[in-house]
Amino acid sequence: MTYKFILFEKIDKVGLITLHRPEVLNALGESLIDELGTALKDCENDSDIHCMVLMGSEKAFAAGADIKEMQAKIYSEAYLEDFITKGWEKVSACRKPIIAAVSGYALGGGCEIAMMCDLIIAAESAKFGQPEVTIGILPGAGGTQRLTRAIGKSKAMDLCLTGRLMEAQEAERAGLVARIVPDNKLKEEAFAVAHKIASYSLPVVMMIKESVNRAFEVPLSEGLRFERRLFQASFSLDDQKEGMAAFLEKRTPKFKGK
Ligand code: CAA
Question: Which helix (H) or strand (E) holds 103?
């Protein structure tokens, strides 16, 4: 598959997707989003790939949905084509873990795509924001929902209502970002995390992702029940026998992904 707006590379068990529209700071146009969805689906279908890293350029992870593409859109079009749903939801629907490696601007849809990933590793230069209010709209790909769950109501209101940007340090303190790394180490560190995740049992990793995400959908009692069922199911895996045997025999486990 050849892409126009993204770059794709497979490195061991990790799929690296790089957003690549440098002239518009990786503005998320429809074609780019389609390509991103296709690349993620391909990664999901590739049993050799266990984890993905999604990154942009040094200056911008992504500066939001493409304003030029959106400017003339009218309500009936937006409604009929279910604007911002098609394509975008493929990121949150992906069952394998995705690490967002964010450098520079992650604004509007850029911040929202990063939040659809499973964890965010930020370069010191990263800046997050939902500046939609400044252009006469509101966040439309989960900004008011995922940001609020990640950093709480007051800070989410602050960002969404004022459109101000949040630096990496503040984003980490607020719980949006898992780790901050020096700018020139972003790719290396994101890969180290991805390779670590990819070294474990794929079904277990996928169950963990599913179970953590369940916490956002259901009450605690149901979430705990869901986790318990998956925990019990993990005892059906060869990888559970292997993982525990390796611990007891003081050796490195050899997971087979089944
Ligand atoms: N859409 C389309 N083009 C964009 C863009 C976007 N979201 N962001 C930047 N660009 C373009 C600029 O128009 C400019 O193009 P030209 O060279 O042809 O003029 C180019 O990228 C470089 O941008 P700037 O010259 O503005 O660069 P800067 O360093 O001065 O500023 C910035 C960087 C602060 C990120 C600024 O570009 C900016 O504010 N961008 C828009 C941010 C924004 O409002 N994002 C939200 C979009 S709406 C959305 O995402 C909805 C949703 O919920 C899904």
Answer: none
C-alpha–C-alpha distance, residues 183 and 168, integer Å: 11
Is 65 annotated in the active site? yes
Give me the residue label for tokens 């709480």: 152
> 89-140, pLDDT tens digit by residue?
999 999 999 999 999 999 999 999 999 999 999 999 999 999 999 999 999 9
Task: Compute φ and ψ for 256, nearest 5 degrees.
Answer: -105, -5
**Could you tell me if 115 and 142 are in contact, meaning their C-beta atoms sit under 8 angstroms apart?**
yes
Residue nearest to atom 13 of ligand 1 (CA): 24
For 119, phi then psi, to 5°, come to: -150, 150
**Predicted TM-score (pTM) of this structure:** 0.97
- The rounded Å distance from CA 27 to ligand 1 centre is 7
Three-state DSSP class for residue 107: strand
Q: Is the CB of 171 under 6 A from ligand 1?
A: no
| Letter string b/e over residues 97-108, b meaning 16 or more CB atoms within 10 A of that residue's CB | bbbbbbbbbbbb
In 10 A of CB 217, how many CB atoms? 9
DSSP H or E run through 83:
none
Residue with token string 């993620």 = 40
Burial class (CB in 10 A: 0-12, 13-18, 19+), 252: exposed
Distance separating alpha carbons of residues 66 and 165, to the nearest angstrom: 18
Q: How far is residue 61's CA from residue 99's CA, in Å, rounded to a whole number?
A: 12
Look up residue 6 and give its amino acid. Answer: I
Give the pLDDT of residue 1: 74
| Among protein residues, the one whose CA lies closest to atom 18 of ligand 1 | 24
